[in-house]
Write a structure and sequence with these properties.
This protein is an alpha+beta fold. It is built from four helices and twelve strands, in the order H-H-H-E-E-E-E-E-E-E-E-H-E-E-E-E.
């Protein structure tokens, strides 16, 4: 038998003490210990994903109301007339505005924090990521007071009230390269860019001026307006991206009008709460 044929039966592995066998064995031991330590601390990507899912998708109970809504109520912002899928499917409409954690942010945070973006979710079940509390914008305690048309307010993430409150914010002139396709984000600073107001939809029978000061009705088509820039909140139904839980839709800060000067379906919202019996 030749030397080449004899060598074919020799199989080398990490148990064969050749070359830098000692360094290789210590490296394998280090990798195993590091993996066990990360698993115990919950630093593995799978553990981070599960923790994020528990925090964001935790079911919540919204404030029940049958007519008007007031300060201190826990609500969801629902866009009922926009497609809930890409491409659009007939009869499948409606998106909820909610917080998002990106693939980069999950490495250091599994809960919504300052700077997290807001997107549109086709999942209409109320959860912590899409539950907000109507908060007074004039630093007065207005709990249980009725919210009126054209009255300024803040939208606070409900899960952040017991820690550092996070408000929905829009900056009209963001730093280039940091905003991306998601113009809305959560901020811990209650400034002018976090103030919003509700406007009634335009009607041929009654003007907005005549409805100013009237209570805002739940589950009714309204317009969400940004006080600092006077532009309306909407969804860019032509701009979708992939998230951890499927496709998500990017918000749009623009007043979209049709040929009659009325807001299009992109700008129509409902302050969603369960109807109390």
């Amino acid at each position: 038998m030749s030397k080449i044929d004899q060598d074919k039966g020799i199989v080398y592995c990490n148990r064969v003490l050749i070359g830098n066998w000692y360094e290789a064995s210590k490296l394998e031991e280090y990798k195993l210990n590091k993996f066990l330590e990360q698993m115990k601390k919950g630093d593995l990507m799978l553990a981070r994903y599960r923790k994020m899912g528990e925090n964001l998708n935790k079911p919540t109970v919204l404030t029940q109301a049958s007519s008007s809504i007031g300060f201190g109520a826990k609500i969801s912002l629902f866009a009922p007339h926009v497609p809930a899928s890409d491409p659009p499917v007939d009869g499948n409409n409606g998106l909820l505005l909610g917080g998002r954690i990106s693939s980069n942010e999950i490495n250091y945070s599994q809960a919504l924090e300052d700077g997290c973006a807001l997107v549109g979710y086709p999942d209409l079940e109320p959860a912590e990521r899409s539950a907000f509390v109507i908060t007074s914008a004039d630093y007065c305690n207005r709990d249980n007071e009725r919210l009126k048309y054209n009255q300024e307010f803040l939208l606070t993430l409900s899960s952040s009230l017991d820690k550092t409150p996070l408000y929905i914010r829009y900056d009209p002139n963001p730093i280039p390269g940091l905003c991306g396709m998601f113009p809305l984000y959560l901020s811990k600073h209650a400034v002018s860019n976090t103030r919003w107001r509700v406007l009634p939809v335009q009607s041929p029978n009654i003007t907005r001026f005549e409805q100013e000061g009237q209570p805002v009705q739940v589950n009714t088509d309204v317009v969400i307006n940004h006080c600092a820039t006077n532009v309306n909140l909407g969804f860019n139904v032509g701009c979708w991206a992939m998230g951890f839980y499927g496709k998500i839709c990017a918000p749009l800060m623009r007043t979209c009008l049709d040929v009659y000067g009325k807001e299009t379906s992109n700008n129509i919202w409902q302050i969603y709460t369960p109807i109390s019996s």
